[in-house]
User: Fold this.
Amino acid sequence: MGEGRRGRAIAWPDGVAGRPSRLREWSYAARLPRWALRVGDWAEAETGPGRAILWTPIAFGLGIAIYFTASHEPVVWAPASAFALAALFVWLLRARPVGFTLAILVAALLAGFLTATLRTLRAEHPVLARPLFGASLSGWIETREERERTDRIIIALASFEPGRGSDAKLERVRISVRKGTAPPPGSFVSLKARLSPPLAPLRPGGYDFARDLYFQKIGATGFALGKIERLEAKDAAPFRVRFLSGVAGLRAVIDTRIRSALPGDAGAIASALITGSRDAISAPVNDAMYVSSLAHVLSISGYHMAVVAGVVFFVVRALLALSATIALGFPIKKWAAGLALIAATGYLVLSGAEIATQRAYLMTAVVLLGIMVDRAALTLRTLAIAALAVLVIAPEAVVHPSFQMSFAATLALIASYERGMPWATAAADTSIGARIALWGGREIASLFLASVVAGAATTLFAAYHFNRLAPYGTFANLLAMPVVSVIVMPAGLLALIAAPFGLDDWLWRLMGQGIEWMMYVAQWVASWPGAVGRIAAFGVTPLLMGTAALVIVCLLRTPLRFVVSLPLAVIALTLAIRTPQPDVLIAANSEAVAVRGPDGQFSVMRLGSDTFAIKQWLAADGDARTPGEKDLSAGFDCDAVGCVAVLSDGRLVAVALHAEAFADDCKRAAIVVSRRTAPSGCAAKLYDRGRADSALALTINRDGFAETRARAADSDRPWAPSAVTKLQAPDATPAEPDLREDD
Assistant:
């Protein structure tokens, strides 16, 4: 243990504190160059006591990520046996520091894999294999979402009749209905609906919506056909339905109260901040929030939870301190922390408990519990414990952008405040800190640096998941966040307390004024030239390397963090920029086709009615155009029976709209796409009905085209059954002439 600046103790290995490390004591150390000895000192420092806990959630999350890359579902005994063996090695190597640390990390990785496997088993439920055009269903409405054009409900099914020719079974479905027609949560309803299997990735490397819905135990999505009838249920609603409907009812009451005081987008955003329901925000405002990097305000996460807990903690402690007897005789700080924890728990339940909110709550709970037991609160270890807790409860969160971005921002902020910005956290006992405090600028500087650090930490994940960058995000946050912190969130919290007394109206209006300012900033910044930073999609490899660079620079303490992280960051950036983009994209079942022409842009031909895939394709290509633009199909030359587009190398891609087109297209084109069944003997690369069951990307190479599927042909996961699994069981009744007398 060495003594740090300002009298703080620093846990640091001997080699760094001044005494020789073990590497220097080895016989051959004298023959090593000085830089190698220095690197050895750094490496020993990073593997010292207490360091493994910081890397354990990283290894645990990596194990979960590896689980999701499997082509078929693992049998549970395999990861369980591997974890048991790793745990045995942890015990055997407990006396060897390096081996013990490595064994812990391997065991954590296997524990993550096992946890994800068990989570999938717990979530097991039927998933619809093919569309149903007139299913009859009845059940309880669990939740209701109000959106800009339609409403959406989740129904826990009591009965399900798929219709003729299908024996599908489902437990929960998500249904879109006409706006204003959705009954309240807890209602027992009966309706007919058109149902589809959960949405598969719309392009190779795209987000897997079906996987998301599987862990929500939703087996199909669709829309209502006709009226929704409210009925009296024969049986009592399940506890889950009663609980969710109770919470949803409370959220609906609060939402109605907010909207009555604040109409329009201000009310929608206020409701999003209090209840977590953000689907009613109009598209222009929502886009402006994303472009200006203020969208994080709409998702209840660490910032909101910290404000709620902080306000309650401060107010309770201040009120208790008014009495000298209470302040001197009782632990009012711990009492305030306990009440703040209760308030944070209520906020978690009220807001819907999304992944970011869970992470924020666990982080806040650990901080408040630390105060209650007189321990250091906000540290990297706190974050590690919170991350492990979230991943144990919901391992599927590791592939969710909300989890990745919230933890990346929090990790970078804590690391910066622990080591990079001591002047921002300590009292004004340094020359820089004293001068900044003298001018009253410490809070402004801290806000600026926090915005820069959090924005830089989340840039990689925003680019990967949303293909967007926010070049003016720091400026927008500097203008908007002080108002959100000082006016919007405190006013909303006080309005919740005042609502039962009928004294909340003016507080909602005060909250709305702050929101109006935030919307003005978002739309103003979004209108600046170059405000919309677009980036083409890149693969998982740059994402993993960039994530590793971020984790290393935040968790390591010695200069080794720069030696390792900088090359990783440069390689990740290079790979992301140089990722080859596809030349042809084909939607599942050939619903749409995109062809990259000689000008480098996609021309898109839509054969079905769905435009969501096209929107995703354009975003992934860094293209600012929208699916509704007229010139989007300008690269296609069409006649009465089909269309043709030219690739960058001069070859043709044909879209056969009628059967007569196949004869000519199969001879002249390199690729033929059609929703019809092509005749046998087509010389072109053919994607017709039944041959494009997954979204495809084709890239020109020396051998013709490299084909990449959004979902591998041999994939067989619970949320993505293989083609064989999807097939209905054949009729096993033997023909009467085939029966023998003894059968």
